[in-house]
Amino acid sequence: MQFHRVVKIFWITALFCAVVSICAVSFFLIIQPQAPPITFPDGKKFGFSIFDDTDGAKLERIKPVYEYLHTLGIKTTKSVWALPQNVSTGFKDSGDTLENPEYVTYLQWLQQNGFEIAYHSARAVSSTRIQQEKALNLYFEKLGAYPSIHVNHSNNRDNLYWGGDRLNNFILKAFYNLQMPENKGRFLGHVPGTEYFWGDIAEKRVTYVRNFVFNEINTYKINPSMPYHDPTRPYVKYWFSSAAGSGVQSFNALISSDNLDQLEREGGVCIVYTHFAYHFVDAGGQLNSVTRERLKDLASRNGYFVPVSKMLDFLRTRKKSDGKIPWTEQAYLQIRWIFEKIFHIGD
Question: Which whole-number Å values give the CA distances from 151 to 175, 250, 275, in the listed order?
């Protein structure tokens, strides 16, 4: 009896995966969004920015990257944690926070030189509403304004609309929960009445929140409505998507010469999501040689190189609509994201 039950579950799962795959391919072919041409400022041919996740970020791990970006004239966005995790069971390598004066001084230098500082939640582990308020006030005190951008961190319970709550279709949501049952009902940042609720604070303080990450250099081609508002997720003003470049190897692959040729040819926009603390700099303080050469190639092209919120502000000025995303484009984003997760494509 147990054997037959296992076989039945296997075939149901296989059938479900087949249906999801067919649906994904159908959406890729039928409703892939149409991305209108963009006229960039000053005759630039394409847009490019980088969001650097602060996981593991210590000065010795990130300074060589930012010094090189500064030399090249590529201005990007670096996220921070305001508070230390203060728990032994938390994130193993949280890096520096706004409670480190030397780190704050360097962040202020980055700001003064055209880089942007974003928010990666209060700290590396789950934070209550009170901790979020403390973190945002500290951010304001040290950096002079509230953050324009927030990005959820990993499995923090305070994450906004995370896990299965990123999905509309009940089949996709059920499949996600089947694959990651530990995340079902875990994320409560947008749920009033819970200790982790801070959605109303985020709505007041933050303009942009990152959602899906894809294995495609032209983020705009996949999500031409970005930044977009989703009325069913009201605590986020605007969402945006990004391109997968989590670590040094995937980052280097993403900005290969062929991919940059494609981005330039298509006149698109790339917003890379990466972690500069993840092995971009070796023990001797040297930037990865492949990264160095590919960033040099990037800088030699006629690109619009600005921090992420400035790129999103620019895209918003082009919109004639109310900023809402068409349901077909939203369905495409969600199905493609699930499809890439099933087959482990990208980050």
Answer: 24, 20, 13
Please state whether the peptide bond connecting residue 227 to the residue before it is cis, i.e. omega within 30 degrees of 0: yes
CA distance 218 to 160: 25
pLDDT in tens, 274-313: 999 999 999 999 999 999 999 999 999 999 999 999 999 9
- 240 pairs with which residues across the strands? 210
Report the distance separating Cα 47 and Cα 38, nearest Å. Answer: 9
Residue-wise pLDDT for 99-146, tens only, equals 999 999 999 999 999 999 999 999 999 999 999 999 999 999 999 999
Do the Cβ atoms of 262 and 298 come closer than 8 Å?
no
User: Which pair of tokens denotes residue 200?
Assistant: 């109303």
Token pair listed for 99: 């409670």
Q: Are 32 and 223 in contact (CB under 8 A)?
A: no
**The tokens of 331 are what?**
């369905």
The structure tokens listed for 100 are: 């480190």
CA nearest neighbour of 39 among 315, 329, 251? 315
| DSSP at 303 | E
Report how far residue 281's alpha carbon sits from residue 251's, in angstroms, rounded to the nearest whole number: 13
CB 170 within 8 A of CB 229: no
Distance of alpha carbon 254 from alpha carbon 243, whole angstroms: 8
d(CA 151, CA 341): 19
What are 167's two structure tokens?
Answer: 């999905």
C-beta of residue 44 within 8 angstroms of C-beta of residue 232: no
Secondary structure percentages of the chain, helix, strand, coil, to 5:
45, 15, 40
What amino acid occupies position 1? M
- Angstrom distance (rounded) from CA 141 to CA 153: 22
User: How does DSSP assign 212-267, residue by residue?
Assistant: EEES-S-HHHH-TT-SBB-TTSTT-SEEEEEEE--SHHHHHHHT-HHHHHHHHHHT
Q: Which of 200, 202, 167 is nearest to 184 (CA)?
A: 167
Q: What is the mean pLDDT of the chain?
A: 90
3-state secondary structure of 274: strand
